[in-house]
Amino acid sequence: MKTFVSKRLLLWFIFIFTSVTISYASGTTAHAEGESYLRDEIDPTLQLNQVPIGSGSSFELKSAVVLPADGGKTLYFTMTVTNGTGSKLSFLDYWVKIISASGAEFKAELIPQDKLKKEIPAGQRVDYSFYAPVNDTTLLEELTFRITQWNYSSSELETSIGDIRFPDPASAVMAPIVRSRSVLIGSMPVVLDVSRWSLQQKDSTLSSKLLLKLTNKGKASIRMPAYQYTLRAANGAMYPLESVLETGAASMLLQPEVTEELQLKAVHLPVSAASEVWDLLINQTVTVSNELKLSYPMAALRIPTDSSDIPQLGDSVEYLNSQGTYLLKAEKLSRTPWEDQDILTTDLAVSHNQADALPFPALKAYYELDGGVVVEAKVIQTDRAVGVPPGVPVHVQVVAKVPYTYPFAQTKLVIEEKVNANLTEEMAQFKLPPASVKLPYLSYGESQPITGAGRAAQYAPRELNLYTDGNSTLLEAQVEVVNLEKRSNSIPRLTAFFKTEEDALYPTKIREVKQKLNPQGKALLSFSSKIPKELSTKGLRLVIGESVTEQRLSGVEDKADAYINAVEMDLAVLNEAINPTLKDVTFYPYTISLSNIQTWLDNKQLKVNFTYNLSKDSYYETSNEGSKLVIQFTDSNGKVNIDETFYLETAPEDTDKRVTLGEHDYRIVRQDDTLLFKIESLKQFKMSIYHEFQGKRKLLASQVLDWFGVTK
């Protein structure tokens, strides 16, 4: 008997000595793909039978799981031993055997750190974690967990105390896997919570990213161990995760009641890995020997993949990279008309709460419609900023085009960072509300602000004019722009459409002003479009927004391919008034008056002398491109029509006729031997003033005068 005891003590001495010298490996242990898996924690309300060991003490199975491992499968399980006595209970007196349904025995071993737990203090509960290599086909419901006690009076040196078995199926007593749970790290309780998850497909592979929040609920700070993190699909296939940051969690300090975040990612997953159910496995590498390293399961968390968990419009999302932690917030979604397409635009604010400015990340984006259709988007920075200042958001617009007839019910916006030429990292996803073509509406007299940093301005419609050549009609809307910056600034590029009450859109051409505006300076822009002669201007509105080209706000020479911050504006009532005299005739910003009109006629020549006075509202910067002034002489029977066409202020050539600011005398001369025969009456004639725009005319004023008289 003494021989048996001595041998057992010698074995335990070797066992304890080797456990003290064991260290933990820092490398990642690979996982083989398995066909199935079992949840590991037994539901407390559905406990399996306990095995009593006397005096209110017992063994109970706390958790068990069979996981794929290199070369086969491994059973991991935890026994909780309760000491109901008033003195210490020696764990050295007991052991656990694993027996299969066929009678085969699998050798169970304690993990190294639990080998030091030789005793259970009086009235306490202590967990012991084991591992046992099993067959590839082993299931929990086929196993018996047999509790034995060393008995040296027996020929077998042990006595069986009791068995613990799972029902069939074993999952009937397993607790559901949840997204948040508390675990012990060191001796401190830490709450783990998976708060965000994304999965995206690029070509033939998948990439994923999740955010794990860790909150130390203990009373002292602890340093995070070097855990391994793994994705587990519904079929049991497992894929390693790595930290977004190079340092990962290895140096993360968890202070009491302070939540830390760990961003994890997996790239180049096969498309076949797509799963409705994903779990996060947290494992610790345990070195048993030079030849054996275990990836011991610490916790399994269910990853929330429901779209309802995706941040929505108005929510903020944190994104961590090597520069710092950014906040992204989708603030506004609009759907605006653009020729035969619609433009989807989301206003995205990028900010942070760090002490120093951060560089602006290289952003990419796309919209996902109804969960499947991907529409690439352009990211346009609308604030003039070289970085992201502390506490000050920098705004960008995310713009994409879809056919205006294409129906879709759900929209998701995905924002990415372009890390390098070959790599992008997902920053955030936003679930957007249904978007319809419903623009902000401004009644006539209201102004639309431009609020980008360094670009403060406002604009509003002024006059509405109609020009014709008898065959077609040209509609022009004048728009006033005011610079609200404290420095001189370029005039913002704008794009506009005329919109009828029936939602028909007519694209416009813009006559731009290229000069910069001083503070509070104004410019008058002109938007025009050919419209059907029979089209009524009643209810007509101007759809107008800030022009963009490629991935920037349009410059002076750029052709716009989209617009942002579009609104609908009521237009002025069509200006159809015809001045009955030739005095104070306005075609904004000009005003002209004709005086001292007199005629002279002989058999070969007609002369019309007059004085004109041209004035201008000089506070407006304007462009006269395509614009002319026409002064017309018509005899009473309409057989003689003489048009004198002038450029305004400047002309392409020195020989071209033009009117200039101020008061000037002018003479119209026409040589024609047949004039006396054409003019049948020398009683009255008519003088008219037209504003010509892009070859079409608008009558401004007309007055009947007497021949050979002189007007005042």
UniProtKB/TrEMBL annotation:
Recorded superkingdom:
Bacteria
Which protein is depicted?
A: Uncharacterized protein
- Record the organism: Paenibacillus radicis (ex Xue et al. 2023)
